[in-house]
Design goal:
heterodimer; A: about 110 residues; mainly beta; five-stranded antiparallel sheet; 11 strands
């Protein structure tokens, strides 16, 4: 079983829709949770960063972390065609030698006009 | 402020050859991470360097190695290339202060094709 599970999609939604992207994980040591956006043939770009459980909002993006369920989500409101990309969840533990990020496989999102 | 830079952007090699990939971190960042992104497998952690030392290593064979230079730039070497090494190799950098709000910023990657 992978440490981080993410539905690969593809997920296709019309412009203006609310998008929900999710990851589950098995390692209870994970404390820091991130969402990256990756456009085709580009490096991942950090979108959201959260520590432990709770919500964080940034413009049209909201990240949620539920550590009791080992479940994280990214919501995109009023989705735009420019949001079409692959979204990667990533997480890490809180110890020095564990600074590596563990990624989900990514969900490919297509926002159509 | 310049982001993480990587060179070359593309690299074509044949089986058995060696590949060298380079990364320059964001100014002020001392930690460099290498990841492999193969088709369908997501990003897999390869190596972490901080202050010139290897701090952690992913589940990859020893023919994947690297180093970090005094200016914090880094090199990834892949020896005895195999077809399965074809992937996008991503470098990321951070301030290296683990346990805090440390975040990793990625470069555009080097796409390696092994024929």
């Amino acid at each position: 079983q992978k440490e981080v599970e993410q539905d690969p999609g593809p997920l296709s939604v019309p412009e203006g829709a609310i998008v929900s992207l999710n990851c589950t994980y098995s390692n209870s040591a994970f404390q820091y949770f991130m969402w990256y956006r990756q456009y085709s043939r580009k490096g991942p770009e950090l979108l959201m960063y959260t520590y432990s459980s709770g919500n964080k909002e940034d413009g049209r993006f909201t990240a949620q972390v539920d550590k009791s369920s080992k479940y994280i989500s990214l919501f995109i409101r009023d989705s735009q065609p420019s949001d079409s990309a692959t979204y990667l969840c990533a997480m890490r533990a809180n110890t020095g030698t564990a600074s590596k990020l563990t990624f989900g496989t990514g969900t490919r999102l297509q926002v159509t006009l | 402020e310049a982001g993480v830079t990587q060179s070359p952007t593309h690299l074509i090699k044949t089986r058995g050859q060696q590949a060298t990939l380079r990364c320059s971190p964001i100014s002020g960042h001392t930690s460099v991470y290498w990841y492999q992104q193969a088709l369908g497998l997501g990003l897999q952690f390869l190596l972490w360097y901080d202050e010139g030392e290897e701090r952690n290593r992913g589940n990859f064979p020893p023919r994947f190695s690297g180093r970090q230079f005094p200016n914090y730039s880094s090199e990834l070497n892949v020896n005895a290339l195999e077809l399965e090494d074809s992937a996008l190799y991503l470098c990321a950098s951070s301030t290296g202060r683990s346990g805090s709000k440390e975040t990793q910023y990625f470069g555009p990657g080097t796409r390696l094709l092994v024929l």
